[in-house]
Amino acid sequence: MIVREYEEDEITVHKLPLYMMGAVAVFCVALTSAVSLGFVDRTAIAHDVRAAEGVTSVSQRSLKFYDEADGSVRVEDASTRDEVARFGVGYGGFVRSTLRSLVHERRIRGIGAATPFDLIEWSDGSLSLQDSTTNESIELGSFGPDNRAVFAAMLKEETR
After folding, report:
1. Per-residue confidence (pLDDT) for residue 3, from 0 to 100
2. Cα 85–90–94 angle (5° rounding)?
3. DSSP percent split of the chain into helix, strand, coil, nearest 5
4. Rounded Cα–Cα distance for residues 127 and 55 (Å)
């Protein structure tokens, strides 16, 4: 039988990084609790900021989104039923993920797909996709100019 001595191979962990990680975790929990309990005001809620600054809607379009049998997503104007855009398989990932979050909220509340989503361009240049049934809103400019441009193209009547 061979007996080995591992005394010199022993791994030691310094305590300072562990203390620092613990301090960051405690700070995050404390800050989150302070906001949740109302000790710190929530900031940058787009609806409230727009109301305070008097920002108005410049253009608006009600859109319906459909999953097609071939895996594509078809976007149509809710009032005219004209096709606004179509995203094939592997394309329109931002559109798909944005809708997935809004549709998820509808499913949680047991709301169907009858009500269209509202795509709104505001006088301050921002663009949002709103669901009037759940009062959820996604600020599309927060995801970069390229992703915003995908939805901005859907506002134009001649877009196909």
Report:
1. 59
2. 60
3. 40, 20, 35
4. 12
pLDDT digits (tens, 9 = 90+) for 138-152: 888 888 889 889 999
- Which residues, 6 or more positions from 137, have their beta carbon under 8 angstroms from its beta carbon? 46, 47, 128, 129, 130, 131
137: β partners: 130
Let me know: does 138 contact 147? Beta carbons within 8 Å: no
Distance CA 127, CA 139 (A): 6
Of 71, 98, 108, 64, the C-alpha closest to 87 is 71
Q: In the chain, at which residue ranges do the beta strands (DSSP E only) sit?
A: 57-67, 73-77, 83-87, 117-122, 127-131, 136-139
Q: Determine the Cα–Cα distance for residues 26 and 15; give it in Å rounded to an integer.
A: 17
CA distance 39 to 93: 38
**Residue from 17, 136, 154 nearest 75 by CA:** 154
